[in-house]
Design a protein that fits this description.
With about 325 residues, this protein is of the alpha/beta class. Helices cover about 35% and strands about 15% of the residues. The protein contains 11 helices and 12 strands. It has helices at about 15-25, 55-60, 85-100, 115-120, 130-135, 165-170, 170-190, 215-230, 245-250, 260-270, 305-325; strands at about 5-10, 35, 50, 65-70, 105-110, 145, 150-155, 195-200, 230-235, 255, 275-280, 285-290. A 12-stranded mixed sheet has the order 3-4-2-1-5-12-11-6-7-10-8-9, with helices on both faces. Strand 6 and strand 7 form a beta hairpin. Helix 1 (about 15-25) crosses helix 11 (about 305-325) and helix 3 (about 85-100) packs across helix 4. Mean pLDDT is about 95; it is low at about 325-330.
Length: about 325
């Protein structure tokens, strides 16, 4: 049996607490996970099983939500983040990483955080969750994958202005993104020979340089060099022809050049069930593909599907890593 998934509390004033309980209600007989946080922040009436160690989660999960207790400074009010909670949110993430690195947790799934609340309350200096996890793990490079049943896509650049993309999109970044994605598809998704489709940056992938030279000067040289090493790469391809069903059948993951080029297709295909996966860490990390949703927190309107899919994927990836089996040919 694999170690259980550690689910962090995230921002206590957001939708994380209620989504956690909804996810537990649907998954309690299917996979073992435990929540790290202050049980006083869970919705009233939540059946809770306080555990001392992660290995108690599997036995507790069918009857109650297993909780590894982490006390916070005061109560939580939905929609109203408190600076006093910032230190606790950060400590929970640190605790989850320690458990994953020790093997006590098989994977980490993270509820959404609110970066401004962490900065205001604890001087949080990282751009986001992913960068904090990278620092805690001491990982040299990580990339963000968005995954659903219909598509896996990785943006080479993420949260920067569109005007900054051409300058940041250099050969080293693109090569690292492709290498990390290829390795993760093998180890975490069971793909023996990953097929990667690479978007161009410009319309029509530059159309031979008439609509931009990034493809000629940056993207094509990287792809040619990696193909010579044995990588199965197609592209650069025009992004407007890459995401229909017949095109998606020809690759295991797509490499996009910027944020919206990656996220628009996956959110169009499966808005509610997309999962954010951090590739390149020494442990498995997934998260739902949404934020804290302060505007609907505590109202019973939040959709748990993305968190449920994130927990299921985290467990599957951890089992595959733990098995150490030879990858199969399909994703």
């Amino acid at each position: 049996m694999s170690a259980p998934v550690a689910l962090t509390c995230g921002e206590p004033a957001g939708v994380g607490p209620e989504l956690t309980v909804q996810a537990w209600a649907q998954l309690r007989d299917r996979l073992a996970f435990f929540w790290i946080g202050d049980p006083a922040h869970l919705p009233p009436g939540t059946p809770v099983a306080l555990i001392d160690t992660p290995d108690a989660a599997a036995a507790a999960c069918p009857r109650a939500l297993p909780v590894l207790r982490h006390d916070f400074d005061g109560p939580a009010r939905p929609g109203l983040p408190r600076p006093a909670h910032a230190r606790g949110v950060i400590e929970v993430i640190e605790r989850a990483v320690a458990l994953a690195r020790s093997g006590a947790a098989g994977a980490i799934c993270t509820n959404p955080i609110h970066k401004k609340a962490l900065k205001d309350g604890a001087g949080f200096a990282h751009p986001g969750h992913t960068e904090f996890l990278q620092a805690l793990a001491g990982a040299e490079g990580v990339v963000m994958m968005l995954a659903c049943a219909a598509l896996k896509v990785v943006p080479a650049t993420i949260h920067i202005a569109l005007s900054q993309v051409p300058a940041q999109l250099n050969a080293a970044l693109l090569e690292r993104t492709i290498r990390i994605t290829d390795a993760a598809l093998r180890s975490d998704f069971g793909v023996a020979v990953p097929r990667l489709a690479v978007c161009g940056l410009n319309p029509h992938a530059g159309e031979g340089g008439t609509m931009g030279r990034e493809e000629i000067e940056t993207i094509i040289p990287v792809l040619d060099a990696l193909r010579a090493e044995g990588f199965a790469l197609s592209g650069p391809l025009s992004a407007d022809t890459m995401f229909h069903p017949a095109a998606r059948a020809r690759y295991d993951a797509a490499i996009a050049m910027y944020h919206d080029q990656a996220l628009i297709p996956i959110k169009t295909l499966d808005f509610s069930k997309g999962v954010n996966v951090t590739l390149g860490l020494p442990f498995v990390r997934t998260s739902p593909d949404h934020g804290t949703a302060f505007d609907i927190a505590g109202q019973g309107r939040a959709d748990p599907d993305s968190l449920i899919e994130a927990l299921i994927l985290a467990d599957a990836m951890a089992r595959r890593r733990g098995a150490g089996s030879v990858p199969t040919a399909a994703s």
